[in-house]
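Reminder to self: tokens first, then the designed residues, so the page reads top to bottom the way the pipeline ran.
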């Protein structure tokens, strides 16, 4: 069973190439946000749990 929860997270564009970690409000496990910029300037946000690999 897969459960998806929507959550609004505000990220600061000054934090490019940084990680942001926030605990899940349901299960308290860390959620990792990795901000990066591509060569053409597009912002990317990768989201994973501690158990996932990048």
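Designed residues (54 positions):
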């Amino acid at each position: 069973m897969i459960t998806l929860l929507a959550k609004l997270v505000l990220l600061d564009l000054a934090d490019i190439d940084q990680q942001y970690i926030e605990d899940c409000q349901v299960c308290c496990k860390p959620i990792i946000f990795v901000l990066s910029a591509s060569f053409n300037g597009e912002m990317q946000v990768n989201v994973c749990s501690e158990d996932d690999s990048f």
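The radius of gyration is 12 Å.
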